[in-house]
Specification:
The chain is mostly helical. Helix content is 68%, strand content 0%. It has two domains: 64 residues, no CATH class; 30 residues.
């Protein structure tokens, strides 16, 4: 599903590009890269871009993840989980 959305967004020029977003707001770029995607991300760049979309994106992550769990810890947890899964799959196929 997301591939289709990204193709259409790329054609009309509203696909969120992390390298451009990081110039304006490094924290938001970090949150977009590691967090879930929301429709407001497609209003950050290109035609119809609004400052409200930037503010909504910042506020969304603050509401979604309260301050009791730091961002670095959540991202480290995701990376460790991904590495564990990749390692298990690697050994599963290598031991055959």
């Amino acid at each position: 599903m997301y591939e289709t959305v990204d193709v259409v967004a790329d054609e009309i020029g509203v696909k969120p590009i992390i390298s451009l977003i990081i110039l304006r707001s490094p924290l938001l770029a970090y949150k977009i890269y590691y967090g879930p995607g929301i429709p407001a991300h497609y209003r950050l760049l290109g035609p119809g871009a609004t400052d409200e979309a930037w503010q909504y994106s910042h506020d969304y992550y603050d509401r979604l993840f309260p301050d009791d769990i730091p961002w670095k810890l959540r991202c480290l947890w995701k990376v460790m989980g991904g590495c564990l899964i990749a390692g298990l799959l690697y050994f599963k196929y290598m031991l055959k």
